[in-house]
Structure formats: structure tokens, C-alpha cells
Amino acid sequence: MLRIFRAFAWMRYRVFVNSLERTGARDTAERFSIAIDKLGPVMALVLLVPSALILFVVGIAAGFGLATGAWPVMMNVVRGILLVALGITIVSPLVLPMRDSSTIVRTLLLPIPRQALYVAQAIGAVGDPWIALSIPLLLGVPIGLAVGLHFVAAAIAALASIGFFLVIVSLTTLAASLLQLVLRDRRRGELAMLLLIVVLPLMGILPQFLARPTHVDGRRLTAAERRALPPTRGAEIAMRIAPFVPSELYRRATIQGREDPIAAAGPLGALAAVAAGIIVAGFVTFRRVLDMPVSMGARRAGSFGGLWDRTIPGLSSAASAVAFAQLRLALRSPRGRATMFTPVLMPLVLGGLAYRRHGELPFTLVNDRGLALAAFGCFASILALLPLAMNQFAIDRAGFTRQMLCPLTIRDLLKGKAVGNALIAVGPALFCFVVPALVFPGASPALWMSLPLALIATYLLFAPAAAALSAVFPKTVDLNSIGNSSNAHQAAGLLGMLSLLVAAAPPALLTLASTALHRTSVLPLMLLVWCAVAFGASHALFIPVRRLVESRCETLAQYY
Amino acid sequence: MEFAVETHGLARTFGAMRAVDGIDLKVPAGSFYGFLGPNGAGKSTTIKCLTGLLRPSSGSIRILGIDPNVDAVEIKRRVGVVPEDLALFERLTAGETLSFIAQVHGIPHETFKSRSTDLLSLMELTGAATTLVADFSHGMKKKLSLAAALLAAPRLLFLDEPFEGIDAVASRQIKDLLHSFIGRGGTVFLTSHILEIVERLSTHIGVIANGKIVAQGSIEEVRSGVHGHGTLEEMFIELVGGERTAVDLNWL
């Protein structure tokens, strides 16, 4: 058994080292791009050591504080960190890249018992940073208690630490296996991802529904009045579930171990039962994954009434084909759908917040909540484009090579990509504009008219920057994931965000100036002029970008 | 003689490695040219240079009489390619892939409809026309890539291992199709490790080893240049460095 674990540990180590060493870069620009991309994991690795030391000290302080009756806040810090680790453990398989099923198939061909495979998989989870960082914290608490000369409590805390560690390690394996089971059927997997895309942003407003209301009968409550109100229904449910959450069981076992060691048996036993239950469930699920680790089912696509065969007015047939291919990529990949759906959810999320806050929004750009909502939603529609727009060539993977083999000029390729990205953003932007305009139509018509003009001008200047950064910083991505592995290159993402802010600055300044001078009626005209300037500037910027992309085509065709 | 593909001193280096080392290719128009070489000899790099996916480090290329430096798009209009990695959009369906190619080539809609129906039927992909390419088997992807290469009715086809992973029935149909393509004046530039296929189909062959052309011409010409008159396999082994010493795995 030990031999198998050693082999797995060595394999993971080599995979990690090779990912840093064997970059396969073809030119200086690519070496630079890859070096920046590798900087994140290397920095994380470097930061892991001081973080682990800090958490170890926090654990010791919490344990020692518990033993001496000092610093009760430290135990709450430990409780909070463990709760976060628990949450990340559950969510991480959803947002991190799926482990390659071919690796599982390969291990299945080796003479390794399934139980050993499961244990190896679970041990492998220790490599996840949030689990690795939990270890010094969990070690620190019993050590702190022992330093405070409470040896029985230290022993109980050590058992609770082992129990909690087993919970998070087996939970991550269970979550990963469950996800693999769901995604094994491609149709079911895509449906699950779509639900996730909808649910994740909505979770952001969950605390608002757990918190007590801020207004009653249109009157804003004081802090004392809010505290006097009974807890909300959501908060009541949360309070009923909380005692059974493993981080809470850990806290109770540790505290009771100090005060009444016999009473600590309750939460300690419950923690052990939870750990055992998750381990069994994890193993059963893992076995089911091993029974059939490959994906199945074929996805069919709609023709949209022959829309894809049409030519977009103003574009050549070739550029139009590129634009529609880009749009279909977004429509048919979980990450692309996230790009299109997340901004659409913005008005709903903010509307929910406004409902809880009696019509108040958490921010006010202008003195009208409808326009503020629309402006925020429209900007978010372009912002959500970043993962696709900032990696617009590499996301085509082998499809980029196909485009290079076709009689397609770089001019048409760039035009098609720019229009395709605009088509991806226009749906959510339109929704974010129309819905607030219908629900809260308050502000002046001139301001409402200005918003789409500002958006167009911003996009016109943003598009060449996006193409240039995509050419310089390509990254192989997995658009099936909605997490980091589908994000654009870090440098492209950061510079893209900056270029978007720069592109949005002139319309924003014009709006602010006209509002301050009470001349909003002339704002649409000013923005129309700015649109014309931005159009000219965009054309001029695309000339060097065309040359840049031409020089990078050979490299870009290798990203799949 | 008119050449569909002609190169002079074509070379491509990757750092210190010369993957293609100054080759002079001459592919007669209307020929079926088998391009052979052992693994890592430089076949795929050569095809990538010829199809415009890689820029040559030095040397010149003429495809159908056109210099790619002068009009690369015009060459792409007249050439069909089945590359090594098949180069397909994973999130388009088979029908949409062909539609994309048709739009980029500017093929009228009616012509596209009739050609795509023929090609999907020939490749036995009609039932999978609305299935995403990501869900295709390797063989299906290869057939679709071939259909994509043929859609624009090219005058020259570059096929990198086109029969690998294709079933016997489809393979037979494709061979017949390529024969009729040659009969109508087209040119095929094919690489394959299956020497029997190359021997049966090719009128001309070129053999590359270590980035250099070691033999080129009609099969008869190449055969006369090496000792004996054996099979293509025997010729090939002799040309690329002779028999390797067999390692006796006596522990097996």
C-alpha cells in the first residue's frame, strides 16, 4: 500500500515540476507570457509557508487562550477559518479544473485495489492549499492547550482535529466524485453547470435574507430596533443547522474538552460519525465513477432557424462566419453561458437587495435607481466578456488552426472576433438596459439615450486592446469549467480590465461633467461625437493590432 | 512539367534543431504524391510550412504556381487540408463546420447545401450532422476534417495521415474518391505510415529522413535508385537508414 502511495506522490510531484519547467515556449513573447502565468502558482507556493506559520501561531494562541481563559476571540477566528475551509472544500471541485478522467482510466489498468485508489485520491487532496493550510491550524490548537497545561483537553482537541481533517479530506473527494458523476452525462452536466451559474451569484444576496430588515413600514430602523426584532425565517433555519456543521462540532468538542471532558464526547462522536458517513459516501461514489469514468451522451445543437448561415450586415461572409462561431462558442460552453447569464442576474440580485432595503440600492451613481441599475448592468456585460475577449484566439483551440487554413484575412478574423464578442455582450446588456428602464423609468430621457452610446464608444476602444492582449498572452483554457482554468491569462485579464476602464473613462467623464453643469440634454450629442471619434480611433488601433496578430498566428495555432 | 508544389531549400528550425533542412520538393500537378518518413523526420513540419501554419526559416515555396508571400489567401482558396490535429471547432456541429468553411470560401448557399449533403452522406455523418464535434469519435472527426477539406472543391489536397482511425468501408470510399479527384486533374499530397496504402495509391513519392529528402520521384524512379525491386516497405527501410538491430527481450 505504501509503495502505491509513494508512486502517486511522486507522480503528482513530477506533474507539478514539469508544469513549471517544460513550457515548450516558441519565442520570447511566449516565454514571457508563460512566465507570468506560472508566477501565480509560484507566488502561492511561496506565500503558503508564511501563511502556514501564521495559522500555526493562530492555532496555538487559540488553544493557549482556551487553556488560560484569555483571548476568547481567537477560538472564534479558528472557527471562522475552518468554516471557510469547509466551504471551499465543497465549492472547489466546481470551479477548479476537473481531474482528467484519462488519469483514472490509466490507474484502473494498474494492479491497484480500489480502496487504495480511493485513499490515494483522498491523500492527494492534502495538496489543495486550503486543506494544506488547515493542518497547521488544527495542529496548533491542541499544542496551545498542552502549553497551557491542559493535557486532557489537548488530547480531545487533537482527536477533534483528526476528525475535522478527515471530514474535509473525504468531503473534497466526495464532491469531486459527485461532480464527475453528474458531468459524466454531458447533457446533465451542462444543465448542472447552468444551474450553478444561476445559483452562485444569487448566493451573494443570501446574507441579506438572513439579516433582520432595515426598514419597517417605510421607516428606517435604528440599530437597537433592528436588534430587538425576532430573527428572520432564514436565520432560524441557519441556526438550527449550525450545531451540526463540522467546524461547529470541532469548536464545541474543543471548548467542552477544556470545561467538561465527558460532555465533549457528544460533539466528538458526532464529528466522527459525520467523518465516517462522508468517507463511506465518498468511497461508494468513487467506486461508481471507477465503474465508468468516461463521458457519455452526445449533445445536439439547434440551428436557430438558419441564423448561423446568414451574413451580418456590414461584414463579409468570412468575418460573419467568425463572429457567429464566437457567439456559438459562448452559447455552448458553461463559461460562455456564465458570461451571458451573470450580467442578466445583476438586476435581479440588486433588485432583491433593493427589496430588502426598501428601495435603496447599495450604491448610487446618479439620483435614479433605474439608470444606476442599467449602467451597472451594462458595464458588467462588457466586464463579464473578459475571459472570452482577452483570450479570443486561444479559446477556439484547434478551431483557430482551421481558420488559419481557410482563405480568411487577418482583417476579417479581427472584425469577426470583435463583432462576435459584441454579440455575446449585447444580449445581457440589452436586458440590463430594458428591464430597469421599464421598472424604474425615472431619469431624464437624455441620460437613458446616452447609456447605449457610452457603451458603444467604450466597446469600440476596448475591442482592439482585447485582440492585441489575446495575441500576446494566449492561454489554453477549459471552457467547461467556470473557475480559474477557463479564465484568460492573468496579465491579459488585468491589462484588459485596465483598458476597459480607460475606454469607459471619457463617456463617464462626459456624463459627470454634463450632470454637474446641468446640461444633460446635450449629453447624447456629445457622446455621439465621441462615438465617431472612438470609431476612428478603433480603426487606427486595429492597424498595428493586425500586424501583431499576423506575426503571432504561428504561435496561436499551437494553443489547443 | 507543371508542379503543384515546388520548394527550394525549404528549411525550418526550432531553436538549434533543424526540423526541415533545406528540402527541394517537386510534386507534379495531377499526381498522387506520397510523402514518407519515419517518426520525427519532419513530415508534419513540412506540411505545416506548405499549408501556411508555420513560416519557413529559409527557402521558397510555390503552391499551384503562387508564392505564399505574395497571396497566401488565394492559395488557401485552392487548397484543402486535413492536418495532423484535424483542426475542428469542438463546439460546432458537423453541419455547422461545413457551413463555416462554405461562408469563409464564399460558396453560395445552394451549392453548399448540395455539396454538404453529398459529403456528409459519403462520410456517413448525415445522422451526426447536428451533433457537436466535441462528442465525435476520432474516426468521425477525421471524416469531417476530410469533408471540410473537400467542400470548396480544391485543386490540391494536403492529407496528413488521412486513413488513420477510419473504418475499412469508409477507407475504401475515400480511396475511390481520391482516385476520381486525381482523374479530374487534382493533386494529392499525402503522408501515411501505412506503406501498403501509399504504394497502392501513389504515383510519386518523396522520402524524408532527419529533415532531408533522401529520395523523390515516381515510384519506378525511386525503385530504380535503390537496390533491388522489392516492396515500398523494403525500399523505405533501406532509404531511411536500414534495418534496426532487434533487441531481444529475453525477460519477456
Structural account:
The complex is a heterodimer of chains A (560) and B (252). Chain A folds into two domains: 269 residues, no CATH class; 250 residues, no CATH class. Chain A is built from 22 helices and two strands. Chain A has a two-stranded antiparallel sheet. In chain A, strand 1 and strand 2 form a beta hairpin. The radius of gyration of chain A is 27 Å and the shape is globular. With 252 residues, chain B is of the alpha/beta class. Chain B has one domain: 3-Layer(aba) Sandwich (Rossmann fold). The radius of gyration of chain B is 19 Å and the shape is globular. At the A-B interface, helix 14 and helix 18 of A face helix 2 and helix 3 of B.
Features:
heterodimer; A: 560 residues; mainly alpha; 2 domains; two-stranded antiparallel ribbon; 2 strands; 75% helix; B: 252 residues; alpha/beta; Rossmann fold; 6-stranded mixed β-sheet; 4-stranded antiparallel β-sheet; 24% strand; globular
* Average pLDDT figure of chain B: 90
What is the tally of helical segments of chain A? 22
* Structural class determined from secondary elements of chain B: alpha/beta
**Distance N to C terminus of chain B:** 54 Å
TL;DR of this structure?
The complex is a heterodimer of chains A (about 550) and B (about 250). Chain A has about 550 residues and is mainly alpha-helical. In chain A, about 75% of the residues lie in helices and about 0% in strands.
